[in-house]
Amino acid sequence: MQMMDDILKELTESKQENKSEISECKVILHRIEGETRRVGIDIPKDRWLAIGAHVLGFVRRMKNKERLPVIEAELFAEIHPDMVALSRRVLVSEGEAWQVDETEAFLLAVHFEAIRVMQTDPSQ
């Protein structure tokens, strides 16, 4: 989709990015698009940019075998369980060379939760 290409171009235009990083980002962004459409979530462009930046960081962390600090399990209670499940589905794919940790799943779920809340209650 052209929007994904535009988002990645905007995120990476001032940096020399590894083509494999961009390719992996596209795969994940398309997976996000498919999963969110399936559950009826419409992601606005400004949120796509935030998600794209997060996904690029995620891909780099996985490539460099870096881990974020562990988050407290109680934080998951602040996110709707469907958004956490959505995040895990997006990040875990059969045959991937990396294992997703709970911190990464939580951080992506925060994006989905913010969108869900905006769509459920636009006054937020």
From TrEMBL:
- GO BP terms in the entry: regulation of DNA-templated transcription
Would you tell me the protein name for this molecule?
PRD domain-containing protein
- Specify the species: Brevibacillus nitrificans
